[in-house]
Amino acid sequence: MNWILSLLLYLPPLAAVCHLLIGGYQRENKLGGTSIKRIALFWSLISLIGVIIIWLSLDEGGDFTPLLIIDWTGGPEKALFYQWGPLVFGIDGISIFFIILTAFIVPCSILISWNSIKYFSTGFFICLAIVQLLLYGVFTVLDILLFYILFEGVLIPMYLILGIWGSREEKWQAAYYFFCYTLIGSIIMLLCIFVMYNVHGTTDYLLLVSISDTVPLNIQRWVFIGIFIAMAVKIPIFPFHIWLPKAHVEAPVAGSVLLAGILLKLGGYGLIRLSWPILPLGTHNFAPILLTVGLIGIIYGSLTTCRQIDVKRLVAYSSVAHMGLVTVTLVTHDIIGLTGSIYIMLAHGIVSSLLFILVTILYDRHHTRLIKYYRGLSISMPIWATIMIMATLANVAVPSSGNFIGEYLSILSAFSWNPLIGCFAAFGVILSAIYSFYFVNRVTFGASSNYLVYPRDVNRREFNILSIMIFITFFIGIYPSFMLEIIQNSLFYLVQ
């Protein structure tokens, strides 16, 4: 399986080169953009198939499976920074599901943007391939310095996607907010990585995990603060969330799907990887602050969502509330809580992407995102309304949905750790039901609105995408054991 594992990192660059060549040929011959869309979809589906093969062949023991070893220095004896050694990439039971989520979200982004990206689609699909490559690297690299480089590199193609293919005139301001907030947080993280290198003389992740107890508490405190700020901006959680609503409102549908589906999960993934395994004393020392920030994020995010009048901003602020629960369960440092937080991120990645696709379809039909103009869509758009109701139920963690498994495990862990914390976390579920059911009841039921003159339901392509996402959402809620066992095995390996 080594050649399949190595091919995973080579497919996105090959796709980008192919897009560049085909795009130049199309411009010279004045052809349409359909061919490059099909090529982009082909490469993304090949990557998805390869990831599924890797998942089926993964060792369930939880340890890292070697993916690729690159001795880019020419050997230790010739290396300028020989302490770093070769760059090692690996997959375990945690990263494999984030890789699968990435491989699934990318073709969904292409299909849902099929009619949106016209003649200038070459650059868009090249940026999409670069994002996919960097995300694969983030979830597989076993060096924290290279993790930072790839983590930060995602900013550049996403900045272009937001700024060039955004939906309105404020797109550059949204891209500016997105770039500046995440860049400032990540620079602090880079300084902390230099501190770790100065203490240990290495940035190898597995080595740092094995010697984490030798770092003095004072250093762990400062390093944890820097890493937490960088990850909190990415998640994002209160009060580092200001860029999120602006980015989502102005982003094209593919940008919103990428942001909600996978990029917002980088912060949670980074906290799970870097906090307790590398900085156990620092994480334990700041546990009360993490709990406070997480609980404020849950309550504040939910209450702010309740007062939104823009459908995209409503879905964006709901993400802040859900990610607050991830922060709370991270503090518990037990297998149940960490498993629940990972499951929330994976399930929320699909459900939030589904919701953004649905509200974008609504905007494409009626050219407004204000909730007050919508009413009675179950009459004029019955298929859309049915899928929206199912997605809303999944978002509020109804039993048999993937979100229910994640939130149940997370709240159970919070109650075991502290009953009062568990009550606050459960209160967030109630608030989630309030704003979700208000929204879906307002737009789907009642008499048809006079503002919606020519309503048109979802087409076949949109229906296929939405159906697949709904099926996956409820499948991982009905049959979660195939994921939970692999995730828990890897968490045992990290928590030891």
Kindly summarize this structure in a few lines.
The chain is mainly alpha-helical and 496 residues long. It contains 22 helices and two strands. The chain has helices spanning 2-29, 34-56, 95-112, 121-140, 144-153, 155-165, 171-200, 205-210, 217-234, 243-250, 253-263, 265-274, 280-285, 287-306, 311-332, 335-366, 377-380, 382-395, 402-417, 419-444, 460-478, 481-495, and strands spanning 65-70, 87-91.
What would you note in describing this structure?
The structure is a single chain. This protein has 496 residues and is an all-alpha fold. It has a domain at 1-140. The chain is 74% helix and 2% strand. The chain has 22 helices and two strands. The chain has helices at residues 2-29, 34-56, 95-112, 121-140, 144-153, 155-165, 171-200, 205-210, 217-234, 243-250, 253-263, 265-274, 280-285, 287-306, 311-332, 335-366, 377-380, 382-395, 402-417, 419-444, 460-478, 481-495; strands spanning 65-70, 87-91. A two-stranded antiparallel ribbon has the order 1-2. α16 crosses α22 (481-495). It is globular and about 70 Å long. Residues 66-85 have low confidence and may be disordered.
